[in-house]
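dumping the sequnces here before i forget
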Amino acid sequence: MDCIFCKIASGSIPVDIVYSDKDLIAFRDIHPQAPVHDVIIPRKHIESVNDLNTSTKELAGKMLLVAKLVARKEGVAERGYRLSINCGPDGTQIVPHIHIHLLGGRMLTNELG
Amino acid sequence: MDCIFCKIASGSIPVDIVYSDKDLIAFRDIHPQAPVHDVIIPRKHIESVNDLNTSTKELAGKMLLVAKLVARKEGVAERGYRLSINCGPDGTQIVPHIHIHLLGGRMLTNELG
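..and the predicted 3d for all of it:
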């Protein structure tokens, strides 16, 4: 498996981990766009939102619940944050393993991309 | 209930509906930031990501699955798109009813906010 996020999930590429459980892992983005910029991924390799289905619906929901936990852990839950999921070329998805970007720690712009 | 998205869900404010089922509704944003800009909301009033919990985890997952369907319906699934969820002041959340923005139809910028 040549997926960088699978390697992060398995521990073979070290990252700054913010949250980890049997299904998901969250870590700090190495090119942060805001004071808080974390990435939440499932351990299971799912390429993108286009590959979600009823069997992974609960896992998708858990990704959002873990995003909530990560926001709290990073101290941005009350002031606010943005979750973004890039999908495919126009969405500027770089790593083909579904992930949520969590940005916070400053007033974000109104521009969604 | 004075929530504009609850009024949209109940049909008392007309919008350009893209998708609708018993749990969720998707409609075109009236101030689009891209050729395709839709908003996906649950019919149930949940204020933000901070208010998700285990009882609404499945609904949260379904929001992402419906986003996938909406992307396909709008013809942007293959070229790509971005999903964004604003939460709280720093996240520029305007309407306090959880919603996913879906942007596509052009190459989006790398800036997530």
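The mean pLDDT of chain B is 97.
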